[in-house]
């Protein structure tokens, strides 16, 4: 190529660049530079606007059209053809200021360039994100191309054909289906009432205000739908941000649409259309046509004399003609005129609306105007209805998300995230819901959606990002203060922000005043100063995400340091806040320490269910951060501590069948073997015991309990001994070793010091004294000391209530009802079971299934008892499966369902053999005998069961089951004429010590012995 040719090409490229820059400037864009044959244009930098994407598309289409025209001329003149391709993408760009220029970086630029490279000659292509912002305003055609938008999943590419003509929104007919409106029934009722008044020639004006996305436009649309208005009854126009300096722009736009323009219209045909419009009403065309033609920039030709009035008189004539056209139209049929977004209205439009409001009372017109809260009418408002739209409540949010999801309910955690981040704003709710549905995180299952995997925080939808950033970018320096505040969270203290910000206190205070005035922050006054909160969670998220990652990390580090050094009371009261700041700053060791402290505080609070959920969240976060630490002993110790707490938190929240509990226990075992003896050995063994015990792995549970007791004995640690002995005691009781269990449990009561050991309940989930006494109460009852057993059970309830620890209270009441059942103390059963049900309903204890099973037995509700037992079995519960199904067997036997009762009892006996849970075996054999003998008094198997029950009871030193089975066997023997055997059996019982005299069965045995000895 000759030198002249290179220069010509360079000159040509320069002209094209200048053309692109000029078009971008007119559309309020920015020329950001060129590289080779590529030109970069920015829309929304340095200040974002809500219509950035639309202006970018208009500019791209204009550039493509102008270059095609230039190419045609060059081709004809010099045989040179120009080719242009454009790509549009919406996203975040990182800017870096240098000495000479501003450098722009990020995936957004790469995606836009890739879109342009893939486009056909002369085409404009948009990404999927940009498509969401252009749909409805441009003709878009889906292509077969897909391009990555900075994530692993490629998104479709759309060709931008042309901008669609400005038209009023679709007007649904009477039979059309429309998406329901949620939470606006009162407002609609008011508007429909006002419509009723205009039909009596009493015109009405209404101003509806509310923040972006609150549903102002949707309210107007729903009003028109309910009133069944046609195209001639409903006029709509809208003020626009980029037309603020265009006089009467919304009115001009409305007039243009009333003319019903055609693509082939000439100046003459447009004038004829205007004449036809005005001729339908009693206008003097020679007066009205020139006025409106001037407004619409329609040449008059030689048919009309142009207006010669001075500007003020011309304005008055224009206003009068426009009002006359509206009022004449309303003479035939009532008219609803909707003027939207008055906060963007030009001054002349505001003035005309003031004239409309002043004269509307005599016309059959309802003027419905909408605006954001910052708009203040310049006209008198005494006769105008003003409606301020509020946020939707939780019920409406749930109904709206289900509607968007095709009538299928969303999972609770998804709904919670949408409700929290959308803050009741319908547009936010809609876009967040659609984003979740399109993310692939859910799958359909029957009439609802369920999670297909772990739920992550939903990103701000592209359709909302520009809206939110536009509000922030208009703030000037206050935007930086909003970003610094966003680092502190949605709610923050002005005092803390002042300590963190690089600006001085006066500048921060000034910025906060501006943010409050702009309705971005809400301020509340507290004793220590003002507390601020972002009006919307998504607004805070947008401010936060607009900071580059490194800047965010530095801001979090400053925040953590300032709180620790200047606000130690906050660090003490809110360790989770410091954990978040340190983690966001990349300081994982400190983040883990604070998360552990936060979890401990959550578990130690005498509060409801939310504490365990909070603790689990903190612990999962901390466990995830461990990977950032070196793999050394310190990290292993930290992981063990966290897993210990996690096991307890999960048990409190879900019970022992949670899969996560098993995983945490196994990991604790691995870490224990790796670390050997350490200060964490005892807490780790405790957590392992709880898991094995509740899963009814009897050998493993007792081995862990014995190791704990032995460790405490060797070290002389009384605290550890106090909470270790009840574990061993309960193991021994369940295994039928009652005297050994009694000795361990009574030792606990002797060692327990309320001041020293009372706090253990909030660490280990159950108070040691309560745990010992409830177990001892059952042991003593079984050993033949019912009064002592009941006394210990009632004392355990009192101790638990004094601690205000719900798990301890619930467990104590559960065992007390069990003791009343064992001792057949019917008079106290009903009252205690009612209290237990009330507690379970209120606190949702993890052992709810046990509680409800016992209470159903008290009420004689066999069906519900069977459901609870089945639910326990289905969840993997093994502990107690020798006892609770026997309650169902009792009710079945009472109702004559002996076969079903025997099945339940046989299941219990098999469970006892399989698990080693044998303390109730004597009673199971006795109950089985009773069922068999009720069906056949001569059944030999009945006698065998009773003898087996007596033998096992004697092995266990369980005097209560022994005497009950002995009495039953004696009755069988006497009925069969074997009185000598019966007398011999009862003679052994008659010699029992007096300390068993409280058992009613002992008196019955002695009375029977006297009777058969006569």
From TrEMBL:
Domain Guanylate cyclase: from-to ranges: 1-116
Swiss-Prot/TrEMBL keywords: ATP-binding, Nucleotide-binding
InterPro entries given in the database record: A/G_cyclase (IPR001054), AAA_16 (IPR041664), Nucleotide_cyclase (IPR029787), P-loop_NTPase (IPR027417), TOMM_kin_cyc (IPR023889), TPR-like_helical_dom_sf (IPR011990)
A GO term, aspect molecular function: adenylate cyclase activity
Species for this entry: Sorangium cellulosum
Gene Ontology CC entries for this record: cytoplasm
Keyword Nucleotide-binding appears in the UniProt entry: yes
Listed name of the protein: Guanylate cyclase domain-containing protein
Gene3D superfamilies (alphabetical): Nucleotide cyclase, P-loop containing nucleotide triphosphate hydrolases, Tetratricopeptide repeat domain
Swiss-Prot/TrEMBL GO biological process terms: cyclic nucleotide biosynthetic process; intracellular signal transduction
Domain of life of the native organism: Bacteria
Alphabetized SUPFAM superfamilies for the sequence: Nucleotide cyclase (SSF55073), P-loop containing nucleoside triphosphate hydrolases (SSF52540), TPR-like (SSF48452)
């Amino acid at each position: 190529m000759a030198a002249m040719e290179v220069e010509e090409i360079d000159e040509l490229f320069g002209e094209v660049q200048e053309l692109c820059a000029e078009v971008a400037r007119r559309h309020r864009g920015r020329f950001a530079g060129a590289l080779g044959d590529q030109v970069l244009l920015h829309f929304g930098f340095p200040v974002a606007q809500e219509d950035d994407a639309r202006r970018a598309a208009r500019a791209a289409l204009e550039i493509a059209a102008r270059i095609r025209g230039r190419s045609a001329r060059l081709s004809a003149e010099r045989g040179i053809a120009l080719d242009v391709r454009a790509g549009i993408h919406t996203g975040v760009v990182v800017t870096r200021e240098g000495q000479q220029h501003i450098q722009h970086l990020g995936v957004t630029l790469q995606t836009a360039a890739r879109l342009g490279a893939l486009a056909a000659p002369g085409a404009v292509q948009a990404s999927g994100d940009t498509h969401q912002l252009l749909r409805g305003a441009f003709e878009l055609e889906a292509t077969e191309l897909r391009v990555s938008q900075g994530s692993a999943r490629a998104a479709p590419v759309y060709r931008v054909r042309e901008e669609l003509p400005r038209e009023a929104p679709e007007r649904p007919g009477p039979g059309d289906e429309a998406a329901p409106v949620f939470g606006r029934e009162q407002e609609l009722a008011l508007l429909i009432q006002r419509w009723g008044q205009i039909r009596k020639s009493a015109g009405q004006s209404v101003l509806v205000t509310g923040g972006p996305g609150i549903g102002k436009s949707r309210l107007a649309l729903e009003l028109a739908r309910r009133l069944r208005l046609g195209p001639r009854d409903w006029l709509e126009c809208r003020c626009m941000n980029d037309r603020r300096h265009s006089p009467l722009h919304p009115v001009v736009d409305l007039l243009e649409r009333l003319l019903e323009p055609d693509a082939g219209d000439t100046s003459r045909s447009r004038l004829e259309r205007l004449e036809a419009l005005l001729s339908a009403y009693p206008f003097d065309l020679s007066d009205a046509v020139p006025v409106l033609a001037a407004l619409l920039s329609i040449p008059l030709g030689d048919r009309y004399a142009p207006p010669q009035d001075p500007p003020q008189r011309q304005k008055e004539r224009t206003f009068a003609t426009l009002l006359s056209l509206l009022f004449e139209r309303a003479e035939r049929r009532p008219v609803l005129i909707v003027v939207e977004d008055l906060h963007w209205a030009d001054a002349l439009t505001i003035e005309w609306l003031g004239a409309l409001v002043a004269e509307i009372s005599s016309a059959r017109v309802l003027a419905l105007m909408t605006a954001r809260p910052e708009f203040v009418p310049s006209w008198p408002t005494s006769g105008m209805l003003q409606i301020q739209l509020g946020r939707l409540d939780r019920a409406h949010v749930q109904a709206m998300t289900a509607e968007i999801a095709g009538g299928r309910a969303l999972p609770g955690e998804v709904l919670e995230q949408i409700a929290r981040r959308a803050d009741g704003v319908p547009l936010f709710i809609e876009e967040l819901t659609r984003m979740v549905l399109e993310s692939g995180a859910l799958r359909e299952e029957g009439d609802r959606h369920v999670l297909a995997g772990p739920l992550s925080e939903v990103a701000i939808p592209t359709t909302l990002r520009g809206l939110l950033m536009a509000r922030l970018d208009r703030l000037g320096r206050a935007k930086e203060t909003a970003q610094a505040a966003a680092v502190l969270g949605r709610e923050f203290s002005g005092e803390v922000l002042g300590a963190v910000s690089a600006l001085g206190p006066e500048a921060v205070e000034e910025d906060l005043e501006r943010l409050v005035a702009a309705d971005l922050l809400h301020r509340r006054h507290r004793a220590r100063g003002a507390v601020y909160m972002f009006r919307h969670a998504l607004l805070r998220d947008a401010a936060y995400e607009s900071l580059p990652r490194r800047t965010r990390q530095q801001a979090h580090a400053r925040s953590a340091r300032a709180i620790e050094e200047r606000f130690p009371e906050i660090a003490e009261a809110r360790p989770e806040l410091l954990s978040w700041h340190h983690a966001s700053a990349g300081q994982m060791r400190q983040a883990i320490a604070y998360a552990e402290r936060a979890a401990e505080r959550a578990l130690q609070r005498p509060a409801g269910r939310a504490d365990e959920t909070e603790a689990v969240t903190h612990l999962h976060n901390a466990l995830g951060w461990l990977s950032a630490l070196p793999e050394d002993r310190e990290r292993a110790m930290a992981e063990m501590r966290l897993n210990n707490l996690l096991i307890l938190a999960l048990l409190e929240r879900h019970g022992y069948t949670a899969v996560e509990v098993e995983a945490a226990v196994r990991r604790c075992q691995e870490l224990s073997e790796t670390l050997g003896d350490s200060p964490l050995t005892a807490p780790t063994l405790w957590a392992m015991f709880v898991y094995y015990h509740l899963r009814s792995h009897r050998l493993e549970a007792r081995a862990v309990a014995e190791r704990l007791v032995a460790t405490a004995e060797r070290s002389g640690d009384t605290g550890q001994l106090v909470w270790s002995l009840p574990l061993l005691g309960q193991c021994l009781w369940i295994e039928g070793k009652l005297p050994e269990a009694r000795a361990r449990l009574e030792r606990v009561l002797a060692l327990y010091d309320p001041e020293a050991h009372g706090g253990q309940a909030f660490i280990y989930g159950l108070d040691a004294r309560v745990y010992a006494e409830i177990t001892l109460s059952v042991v003593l009852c079984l050993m033949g000391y019912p009064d002592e057993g009941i006394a210990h059970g009632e004392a355990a309830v009192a101790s638990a209530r004094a601690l205000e620890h719900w798990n301890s209270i619930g467990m104590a009441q559960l065992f007390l009802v069990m003791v009343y059942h064992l001792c057949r103390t019917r008079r106290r059963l009903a009252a205690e079971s009612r209290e237990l049900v009330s507690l379970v309903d209120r606190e949702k204890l993890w052992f709810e299934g046990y509680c409800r099973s016992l209470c159903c037995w008290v009420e004689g509700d066999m069906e519900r008892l069977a459901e609870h037992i089945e639910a326990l079995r289905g969840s993997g519960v093994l502990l107690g499966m020798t006892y609770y199904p026997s309650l169902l067997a009792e009710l079945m036997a009472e109702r004559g369902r002996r076969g079903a009762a025997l099945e339940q009892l046989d299941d219990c006996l098999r469970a006892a053999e399989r698990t080693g849970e044998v303390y109730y075996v004597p009673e199971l054999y006795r109950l089985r005998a009773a069922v068999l003998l009720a069906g056949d008094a001569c059944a030999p198997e009945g006698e065998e069961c009773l003898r087996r029950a007596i033998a096992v009871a004697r092995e266990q030193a369980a005097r209560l089951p022994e005497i009950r089975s002995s009495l039953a066997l004696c009755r069988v023997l006497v009925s069969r004429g074997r009185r000598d055997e019966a007398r011999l059996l009862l003679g052994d019982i008659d010699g029992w010590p007096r300390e068993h005299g409280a058992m009613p069965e002992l008196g019955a045995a002695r009375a029977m012995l006297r009777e058969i000895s006569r």
